[in-house]
Amino acid sequence: MPGKHAKYVQRKITVPDIERAKMSLMNPAFIQQKIDERTVDEAAKPVIETMLREGIETVWDRFEQQQPPCRYCSEGISCNRCAMGPCRIIPEHYRVRGVCGADADLIVARNLLDTIATGAAAHSDHGREIIETLYKTAIGEAQGYEITDLEKLKRIAGEFGFETEGQSTEEIARQVSLALLEEYGTIKNFIQFTARAPQQTQEVWDAAGIRPRSVDREIVDAMHRIQMGVGADYTTMLAHGLRTALGDGWGGSLMATEISDVMFGTPTINQSWVNLGVVKKDQVNISLHGHNPVLSEMIVRAAEDPGLLDLAKSKGAAGINLVGLCCTGNELLMRKGIPQAGNHFNQELLIATGALEVMIIDYQCIFPSLPRTASCYHTHIVSTSPKSKVPGSLYYGFYPETAIDTAKEIIRLAIENFPNRNPDKVLIPADPMKVVTGFSVEAIQAALGGTFKPLVDAIAAGTIRGAAGVVGCNNPKVKHDYGHVTLGKELIKRDILLVETGCAAIASGKAGLLRPEAAKLAGPGLREICETLGIPPVLHMGSCVDCSRILVLAAELAKTLGVGIHQLPIAGAAPEWYSQKAVSIASYFVASGVYTVLGPMPKITGSGNVVHLLTEGLNDVVKASFAVEPDPVKAAELIDRHIGDKRTALGI
Predict the structure, then answer these.
(1) Of 113, 129, 325, 133, whose CA–CA distance to 226 is shortest?
(2) Cβ of 645: how many Cβ atoms within 10 Å?
(3) Is 597 in a helix, a strand, or coil?
(4) pLDDT by residue (tens digit) across 90-116?
């Protein structure tokens, strides 16, 4: 077992010899073809070229090595739930049921429910850690944390019926944190934040029997149902999947968002920079990668320590430069204006700039192979979560009780590593792209003059035809960022306002769509609104748990208009999704009444009944459904048509 700060020495990872031969300097056309197939991120292309030439493995190489995929796994008709299997449904060989008797419909539904439950658990456990940190802050056991948005804390207290007049901030925080922790296993049989949905939407949930009872109960119920010998009706399995997802969107994720705002500040509109060009040659570069702002916020605070800044200068550095990756980067970008190096598929490339001293990781969307990539450079990978220990990384356990001390220790490690950088390997491939971010629901409302009525009026008048939430990560089945950027451009030119989170938002940022200047790419109505308000046509709303902000925004628009969410001219899309979390997000969008278009096909095609239920049958249950369209231009056409139908139904 390696010690606390052990680091494996790994040989340089190479692609197969035949591929290396093709990629020799004598074949620049082959290299360019590979680059063009992999990404539309211009800042990423020079780094990918370097990694191809040097034979350093990336996510795209590993994807190619996995081809062709297993047909049965891809269709969702492979089952490994018990020791009687594994089983596959192969009708042409008369294998129409697994050993237990499960048919294709049940196997596909069980696998999908498992996926939803996993995604809901990931988001909701993230939320629990933030709430626990609030509680420890309230009772004086957390080091360096404080309540930043007292007004939001009081609003949440009011939702639970707590009296705040004459109460100390700490006492309000204690009561709220305990109440929120109870939401994970409450016996009152409903999640408090579901009351934020319009009454019409709540009635749909109650009629379908899918209002979530508590966060953990739905996840545990899901895992019970997929045990062999329990759930046998594919329709009830999928209905519970929607209830589990709602427990994520209106429960775990929304609590994570709200309490992050309480502790670290509700985002306001700000300006920053994105792409791999945010690293600096003359500074100690530290990236924050993962999802939990409990860690990253303390790193930001520790990086301002005068003693550490002096130490950096003594090592020859001009300063300490923090950059974000993935969703913890989105949290920092929204609240602090910390530059963002990129999204999911930029994580290996950031190491390959040769200018990164330390990559700090917590959990979710982190490649286990990062230490292998880092072994080709001087970069240290520092893991911090006991849930996500990564072989080859240096482990610094991060806990609220010792947060500042640990943060300083990690930054000191990065500073000491700065002299080990090889200047000949440094490749900073581009200038950063300016972005405008910080569009929380509160920031949007403030920009509209304190009410959502101007936005509703613009939609009613047709100046803005509708809105779409574009979310999700990157998937090697889709050219990196192509799905996000192409769909975004197609929608805004149709006068459809975009709200985005996570990797989708960063893809738009790298492509220049998060700048007010991008209004020139929008249709005439949306362009006029954006130019009047000085905002971009694509609004960055935060990290993947902040998809819950999109739910709250939709609820506020629906209440202003006096309708249910399902009646609004809005849609959702995940053009490059890959994770279980994305399936949970898409499911709570649909269950809340939002028509949602996916890019890659989920693993459900082995059951025509499941496909029909998800793409058509749900309209009779939750007034919304899924669609799958890998071509982002065609996906835009589907969304445009849907928004047109909703406008007609509203008579606008």
Answers:
(1) 113
(2) 12
(3) strand
(4) 988 888 999 999 999 999 999 999 999
Position 59 scores a pLDDT of 97
Asked if 349 and 47 count as a contact pair (C-beta separation under 8 A), the reply is yes
Radius of gyration over every alpha carbon of the chain, rounded to an integer in angstroms: 24
198 phi/psi in degrees, rounded to 5: -60, 150
Fold of the 104-264 domain: Substrate Binding Domain Of Dnak; Chain:A; Domain 2 (1.20.1270)
**Residue pair 625/593 in contact by the 8 Å Cβ criterion:** no
| DSSP 8-state secondary structure symbol assigned to residue 90 | B
The pLDDT of residue 340 is above 50: yes
The residues near 7 (Cβ < 8 Å, ≥ 6 apart) are 371, 380, 392, 393, 394
Whole-model pTM?
0.94
Short-list 520, 537, 318, CA closest to 415: 318
Could you give the CA distance from residue 222 to residue 227 in angstroms, rounded to a whole number? 9
Q: In angstroms, rounded to a whole number, what is the distance separating the alpha carbons of residues 100 and 590?
A: 32
Residue 342 forms beta bridges with which residues? 325
Residues 6+ apart with CB under 8 A from 247: 120, 124, 191, 212, 213, 214, 215, 217, 218, 219
| 434-650 to CATH, choices 3.50.50.60, 1.10.10.10, 3.40.50.300, 3.40.50.2030 | 3.40.50.2030
What would the pLDDT profile of 578-633 be if each residue is shown by its tens digit?
999 999 999 999 999 999 999 999 999 999 999 999 999 999 999 999 999 999 99
Q: Judge contact between 558 and 567, C-beta under 8 A.
A: yes
Q: Which residues contact 178 (CB under 8 A, 6 or more apart)?
A: 135
Instruction: Give the pLDDT score at 20.
Output: 57
| pLDDT tens, position by position, 228-247 | 999 999 999 999 999 999 99
The CA angle 209-211-214, to the nearest 5 degrees, is 125
Three-state DSSP class for 86?
coil
In terms of Cβ atoms closer than 10 Å to its own Cβ (0-12, 13-18, 19+), residue 396 is middle
Closest CA to 69 of 608, 605, 482, 611: 605
Tell me whether the CATH fold assigned to 104-264 matches the one assigned to 434-650.
no
Q: How far is CA 577 from CA 60, 483, 601, 602, in A?
A: 16, 10, 10, 10
Give the closest residue to 555 by CA, choosing from 269, 155, 232, 201. Answer: 201
> What does the domain layout of the chain look like in residue ranges?
17-55, 104-264, 276-425, 434-650
Q: Which ranges of 139-213 would DSSP assign to H, the alpha helix?
A: 150-159, 169-182, 199-208
Q: In the Cβ-directed half-sphere of 158, how many Cα atoms lie within 13 Å?
A: 8
pLDDT by residue (tens digit) across 539-573? 999 999 999 999 999 999 999 999 999 999 999 99
Q: Report the distance separating Cα 173 and Cα 239, nearest Å.
A: 35
Q: Does domain 276-425 sit in CATH 3.40.50.300?
A: no
